[in-house]
Amino acid sequence: MKKLINISFHAIFWLWNLTFLAIVYAGMLPLIGFVLILATLDGEIPVEFSLTFLALIAVPTVCTVIGARRLRKQPTELMRLFYGVEAPLFLLCLLRLFLLRELTPASNLILGTVLLSILAFSVELLRGYDERQQTIAWLQMVAHSLMLVIGIYVGLLLLFYALPAAATWIVAFLRFEWLGHLWYMAADGMSSGLWLTHLYLFCLLILSYFLFFVLSATWFGITLTCGGPSRRETG
After folding, report:
1. Cα–Cα distance between 201 and 78 in angstroms, integer?
2. What does the alpha-carbon distance between residue 146 and residue 143 come to, in Å, rounded to a whole number?
3. CB under 8 A, 24+ apart: contacts of 70-77
4. Any alpha helices (H) in the chain, and if so which ranges?
5. Angle at which helices 47-69 and 2-21 pack, to 10 degrees?
């Protein structure tokens, strides 16, 4: 069972990174990348958008290199790198590039806090928790508190959308109308030669969502029943 879980971890990390790299290098870079950079040099577009686009390219590239060189034999750490660093950063870059055109002071504060939390998590992921140096340990504890606050804030914010969306999706799922749309997508993909891409993305999304929720529920159950790792160690 453990071997199967480790294989799933590797599959999700490397398949998603392959997808991200294909999107940015084969899709976004030739289509909008060069145009965006030229428009920035001409002064038509603010520099922030080009920097965000460069970050969008750098995130999957750097995470792929880190995963290949430092974490390829640690599947659990690969999952932490993907779900805790790469996916949030990639999503933030997409939101900044396509949705958040003008940033207010409040949105700057929120984005800065989220980026600081991701940075702190990245440092701890690569270096570990430093208990011997009290200053660094205190900084990491403050970063953990910041991550908790951001997690609660994002969770409460998404709760307003998650509950209505979940109710709508459950009703739509029980009607089984999605089977017709799925069949149409498959038939359209076969006729256009893209059915393998549709099947690949569908299976990858299902596997990622399933594993994410299973891991979250399992860890939450372990924390409730056993008191978490820290209480087990101190007890």
Report:
1. 20
2. 5
3. 70/126, 75/5, 75/6, 75/9, 75/10, 75/13, 76/9, 77/125
4. 2-21, 34-41, 47-69, 75-81, 87-98, 105-127, 134-175, 178-192, 195-226, 228-234
5. 150
Q: Which residue has the tokens 């294989």?
A: 7
Taking the C-alpha atoms of residue 83 and residue 100, their distance in angstroms, rounded to an integer, is 22
Closest CA to 56 of 84, 14, 98: 98
Which residues have a Cβ under 8 Å from the Cβ of 94 and sit 6 or more positions away? 56
Give the closest residue to 204 by CA, choosing from 10, 16, 5: 16
End-to-end alpha carbon distance in the chain: 29
Residue pLDDT tens, the chain, 235 long: 678 778 878 888 888 888 888 888 888 888 888 888 888 888 888 888 888 888 989 999 999 999 998 888 888 888 889 888 888 898 888 888 888 777 778 778 888 888 888 888 888 888 777 667 777 778 878 887 888 888 788 778 777 776 787 778 778 777 777 677 667 766 665 555 566 666 666 676 666 666 666 555 555 554 445 444 443 344 4
